[in-house]
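Archive transcription. Copying these from loose printouts into the bound notebook so they stop getting lost. Printout 1 of 2:
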Amino acid sequence: MKPTRRPRVLPLGLVLGFALGFALLAAGLVALLGLFVDERDSARARVDREQSALAERAAAHLRQTLTDLAGSLDDAIGAALTDPLRPHDPLLLVERDGTVRLPSRAAPADSEVRPLLTHLDAADEAALARLSADDPPLAERLRLVAALPATTARWLEHRRHFVLRADRELATTLFALERLAATSALDPTQADALLRTAEDAFFPALLRARPRLSAADLEHLLERAATLARRMLVRVDDVLARAAASAPPLPPTTALLDPALATPRLVGPWLIVHDDDRVRGRHLALDALVAETHRALALPADLTLTPTRRDGPLHALTLAASSPRWDLERAELDQRFTLKAIPLAAVALLALAVFALAIVLQKKKIAYLDLRSHLLAAVTHELKTPLASIRAMAETLELRLADHPAARDYPRRIVASSERLAFLVDNVLSFARLERGAWKPHLTPLPVSELAAWLAAEPLARAARPVDLDLDVPAELVLVADPDLVRLLLSNLLDNAARYAVAERVRVTLSARRDARGVHLSLSDDGPGLADLDPASLGAHAHPTPPHRLRGTGLGLSICRMIMALHGGSLEAASHPAGGARFTATFPAHTAPPLSQLTPAPSR
């Protein structure tokens, strides 16, 4: 028994060489990627340090500003208590007994706003004289107002030199402005100055005097002044909004008087300082102070400072700094890292692809070499016998034909051998075409009975030994397939049955049937069968079968399997229960026309 040829495998050295090279390349790429990561992280850390340092610098400046404001609370509160008309931020003064002295929310009880305006509107000189009897500046102001617009310059001069009580000042000023507007002595520019922009303008004075006016007087003055402003095209919406705003809410008194709280501290919008007998505070616009810090430190315009908390001791106050420049720097660092990492990833993928491709190509090369070696050896072996027969018969015919009539059979045998040789050559060529995909099937309806008649007439003459063909084919059965490929399939199956038979004459049965899967063509013989061979491996790679079992290359069965693959079908081999082998070709179901409508399929 000859040993079976072992298939070639990939050389171990080649595999190890590829693996080692890929591992070294991967290690180098990982190390280079680590350098890129360190470079990016170092640059980001530098940006973070710059951001943190600038935020701490701004926070220190803001804490110092708030500390200075806390130190000036005594002076501001003293001035507010002495002169309530003096403009100032809302201040807080709470005694230890809980009495709130500032901000003052009580309205004076002796306001003369509406009575004075009523007497001015009615030109009631007697009533006006009674109101100004004990106030010479008021009497002079009323006299000048009554003579407007002739006394406009003197009235303005009088306002600059004499400051009346808040309710009287506001009432006389509003009446004077209404009188000037009514006599067309006041244009929009002057009206804007006297109502809004001048140092002693009406609206600022009204808002400053708010703590000394009752809610009713404030509403009356605002309503009349707003009507005048709109008539003179002076903007008044912001003034009305400020007047409508209530005094800032106070922090909870219990929290203010808690001696355990560290001071100075922020309690919401209030800066609070504790003393032994009172609590002082100032209402702050913390965002405005942050903006002032921004300007004082001459920070970049695109930098934004934001308090991280608005409550707690001043020493705990911190700011968060942000800037599109830092965000852009971080984005650029990430982008540069990505641009550097992408080529590394591409190199890694390319190396992996080259490694995989090299393995695949090497495998294909080995498979190709094995296939070529086996095919050439098998074809050479198959061609030697017919050629030797032809040569021997031809020599014998030349030497003996003239003198021996019995030699007249030699020409027939020469023809048979020639046909056998032609069949083998055709098989080799067909295999080559099928393997490289050069043979495209052209499906056409084909009566199975015509195929059976062709098989009985043509291939039987070229069979390796005499064949008795039995047919079990329905007369109306139609197969949709490529005629040439089907004929090649049946020829090889018949040749396979004749070559491996053990009797002098082989009996072959061709049967056909249709079911839900499609059309089944079966060719069974009375030979030795498949015995212990794996039916699925027969003809799978056109390798020769073991010489002690079968005589052939397996080329015919390989051609049959490729033909069925082109048709989307399958070829199954099995040992027949009664002895011999059965090969069944299953063609998928196709819609075929009635047999009466078919024309014979031409042969290529």
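Printout 2 of 2:
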Amino acid sequence: MTLLCVPIVVRDPALALSEAANAKAAGADIVEFRIDEFFDPAAAEADPDRQEREIAKLVRESPLPCIVTCRSSKEGGGYVGSEDDRLSLYESLASGDRKATLPPRYLDIEFVSATSRDVSGRIAKMMTGASQRENANGLIVSAHDFRGRPNDLTRRILAMRADGFASVIKMAYRARSLRDNLELFELLRDSDRPMIALGMGEFGLMSRVLAPKFGGFLTFASLRPETVTAPGQPTVSDLLGLYRFRSIRKTTKVYGVIGWPVGHSMSPLVHNAVFAEHQIDGVYLPLPVPSSENNDEEATFASFKATLGALIDDPRLDFSGGSVTIPHKENLVRFARERLKSDPGIWSLDSTSLATGAANSLLIEREGARVQRARVFNTDVPAAVGPLRAALGALEGKSIAVVGAGGVARGIAFGLVQAGATVTVFNRSLEKAAAVVAALGRYLEKPKNLSFASIESLSGSSGFEAVVNCTPVGMTGGPEPAGIAAPIDKLLDADANSGNKSQSGVVLETVYNPIQTPLMQAAKKAGWMVIDGVTMFIEQAALQSEAWTGKSAPRQLMDRIVRAELNQSPD
């Protein structure tokens, strides 16, 4: 079983013990006492042994088995004292001196230090003595690189394995992409003894959550976001609750949301809850794939292609599907088109994705390690068309304004015209709006039912029975969080000025955070019916879930979870 370890930075031993009790209550298996900021013999001249006694007491009274780590400042820790003092403390703890009736379960020391000429002999003697005692402690030999994957990674791992006294090997480095996780998993699979292999930073979350799948000795999780000891550590509550850490095993299938950024996506919350409800052996993760720094489309696609290809082609990861969001919906279709050329019997694209050039869903079916079927499809479109049909009745002949010209707008415009509506695409860039209409026209049975106009002209338009916002205007954290994407009040004025009876319509919002966007508030005030972004988000996720699980999605549960989370969000 992969252990869940809570690291505790020791500044006050009494508080550290309290935190260890909190870790036990939260569900941890073991704690790591990080004493490197506390242990400073040079500062305790009046009573040089006081700190050692307090550390021994900490070990003795810990409510959980513990690791004691005095991390050197050279590898990201806070210890700046002498190596002799640190080794003397470790020798004392390992021998059970200072009335530590039980030594710590593990001591952690950096590989660079453990193999230095002055230290290696003392380490060997210490561990030889420890092995001859009952309740013997073990040694974790660790290496860290906060910059990225070490250039000498393979050589370093081989050297660590050659060490005769390491009970556990630990390798942690900053992950620069999702692909770094796959190499960490290989290290776990090939290890000759218990091993910890973790990627730091947001790209390394996969290595922490999936440690049980690949036999990792332990993974670290903090009690609270503010108590992390390394970048990218999840909290205990997220690891056990959101990601269902205890249910992850070798057979667990991996899913995720691919985009940039994805750290605040609601999708992991929703899909992991569905897996739990249906008792599906799967886990859903945020999978960040960044766009290029200078918005180079080719560079962004190259990164997406390399990452998604690596996830799909890895024979042991069991990557089985994903949600794809901004900025990669178009990249997913492009990726699928390339794979279609090489594997036409395996890959497929639905008609909406082909027509719009954008997709948000991927399903991978496997037989053992081999991909049998790969399906790319779009659930954004039915998730928008369905609620509008429910609100307006049959869509034939209905006049609808779609605001925006991105991938979501293209898909929804296509779906509405296919359903019989007359659609006008409004956008700030008339050129982009025209390009959308031209591109979709080749795939529409009635291309004349789709037109375009500048966003400015929307104020003087009339007769629209529905307005769909497909822009990020009004989104929390977006470019215009207080903005209103469509001038609802002026649409009503336009009806009156044209001699038509002023009438209200339906507003469909695709933004779901906040639930009540400025556009929705204005629409309600004007007497329009509103369909919030949560409705569409839940429906598109439900359609994805049904494709992945083969079971009816629990829409009410999904809706309740998202609304509860958004209502309590500090944003």
